[in-house]
Q: What sequence folds into this?
């Protein structure tokens, strides 16, 4: 049997001021979106800001529902809205941030598995890398230069026989 190893690369930046201006701007937009989250049940407010290849920025936040599974995460709200408005336009970067009514979120918030699948499909369809920038309400910033770092071996449309 052949053993294969996948290694993942990401960056941690403790000094926000050292980040590129466009990362900070995208994080600021994600933070603004988190302020408008509809999260009365979890008290966990997530914001996402998506930078498209055409220069547009689309933001989204988590939308909860009294029938809990009917809600949707911030990342998918933003990505689906971006795709609805600008179908086929590549996503260059996404910034994700979160705050909680129940305590300080002082570390980066990586997206849930379902959001990773949607992000991976978006990256795969556009054949261009999606930069993922993650931060809690405070604390360090975590950056992955490609979505494949967050979801290796993802299920992509090539697996579906046509
Ligand atoms: N949430 C997101 O918006 N994104 C994620 O990647 C993980 C979780 C939301 C869903 C729910 O409204 C709240 O955070 C608590 O799970």
A:
């Amino acid at each position: 049997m052949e053993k294969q190893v996948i290694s993942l690369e990401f960056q941690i930046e403790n000094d926000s001021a050292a980040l590129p201006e466009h990362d900070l701007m995208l994080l600021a937009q994600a933070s603004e979106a988190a302020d408008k989250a509809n999260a009365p049940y979890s008290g966990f407010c997530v914001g996402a800001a998506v930078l498209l290849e055409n220069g547009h920025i689309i933001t989204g936040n988590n939308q909860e529902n009294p029938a809990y599974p009917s809600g949707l995460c911030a990342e998918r709200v933003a990505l689906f809205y971006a795709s609805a408005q600008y179908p086929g336009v590549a996503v260059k970067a996404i910034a994700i941030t979160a705050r909680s009514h129940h305590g300080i979120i002082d570390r980066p918030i990586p997206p849930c598995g379902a959001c990773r699948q949607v992000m991976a499909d978006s990256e795969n369809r556009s054949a261009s890398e999606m930069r993922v920038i993650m931060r809690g309400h405070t604390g360090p910033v975590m950056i992955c230069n490609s979505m494949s770092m967050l979801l290796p071996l993802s299920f992509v449309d090539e697996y579906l026989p046509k």
